[in-house]
Amino acid sequence: SAYRLCIMRKLPSVLARTLTFGTSASPGLPDMSEVRSKLRDIVGASTNWRDHVQAMQERKALHTLLAKRQEDLPPRRMKDSYLEVILPLGSQPEIREKYLNVHNSVRFGRILEDLDSLGVLICYTHTKQEMQQRSPLSIVTALVDKINLCQKIIHPDCDIKFTGNVSWVGKTSMEVRMHMLQQHDGDYSPVLDATFVMVARDPENKRPAFVNPLIPESPEEEEIFKQGELNKLKRIEFSTASLLKMAPTAEERNIVHDIFLNTLDPRQEGEGTVSFRSRKLPPNSVWIEDAKLKGLEICHPEERNIFNRIFGGFLMRKAFELGWATACSYGGSRPFIVSVDDIMFQKPVEVGSLLLLSGQVCYTEKNYIQIRVHSEVYNANTKEHHTTNIFHFTFISENEVPQVVPKTYG
């Protein structure tokens, strides 16, 4: 089962360094509101929308604090960026409502928001310079590489703990590994593993900026670092193998041809002839073009991040919710999220944008449904559309689902 794929990679307990503030639920551990407050302090972000222009102007002066070369920055260890954060759903019932869904479990879209905030704070912890109160870096999410879940249900009345640290560093990018655990009978058990890639940019978020190198300290850490390097190479390889750049492989061509042959209708024409235009749907199947849902969001100031663009976690939550609704309407029963893959953040989304979301069932197998959500912004002044994100979600449905079948090459 896919749920068994979730393996907690525990780093040595020596990593257990936390922020210096805590909650009554778990003394010494910050909660998510403190994480976001800490991020605002590090960046110097305004809490009022009307002050945001002045706050961003003040950040320009931080340019002088940027390193000219990566070699000028002190190397860091994995344990230097290690953080633990509590989400006190059990011990603080007043925050439960925000996380609750109608099925009496936790809204996964809210968890995506929390992972995004925590990933950014972990990177700021890795790059922190002792003498600087504010960071000159703008650290933003570039990619959600993978999130694997090993629990079907996340309980709304038990405390959750997030842990994470920087696991690989390039010149200007960092990979962050995070784990989520939930408390049951006094013990924390694994719920999910997540791998995010963050990029560092200058104070105005215009150009790449160097980050501290990472030094693995043990054979286990060297393995983790090596895996980060492999992940990077896989991403490069995957982008060069895009169908827009490269022809399908022999195996892929056979798959496409078999699908095509299965959808030809030999009865549409005279004896012995088959039309390429006459297509029939195989039994218990749905055309891919009939398995879509669309959504629209107006991007209000409330959803902005510390750089006054729309918060990546909000975009992920909205895309996930549309993906879930697409899977629910397609399968006809409640779907459960199994994994999240390859969320690419291609363009930032400005406050005031019209965000158009399109959910599409793109693959099915037995009880599994894979959904692709395409997100684009529409500029009412220029009448232009720009892709901002592409999301991939895999769900498991309570019942077996119809097979989804493509009609065109695209």
TrEMBL record:
Record key words, sorted: Hydrolase, Mitochondrion, Repeat, Serine esterase, Transit peptide
HotDog ACOT-type domain ranges (all copies): 81-204, 289-401
GO MF annotations in UniProt: carboxylic ester hydrolase activity; fatty acyl-CoA hydrolase activity
Record GO biological process: acyl-CoA metabolic process
Cellular component aspect of the GO annotation: mitochondrion
Localisation per UniProt entry: Mitochondrion
Record-linked SUPFAM superfamilies: Thioesterase/thiol ester dehydrase-isomerase (SSF54637)
InterPro entries reported in the protein's UniProt record: HOTDOG_ACOT, HotDog_dom_sf, Thioestr_dom
Protein family (similarity comment): Belongs to the acyl coenzyme A hydrolase family.
Protein name per its UniProtKB record: ACOT9 thioesterase
Chain's gene name: Acot9
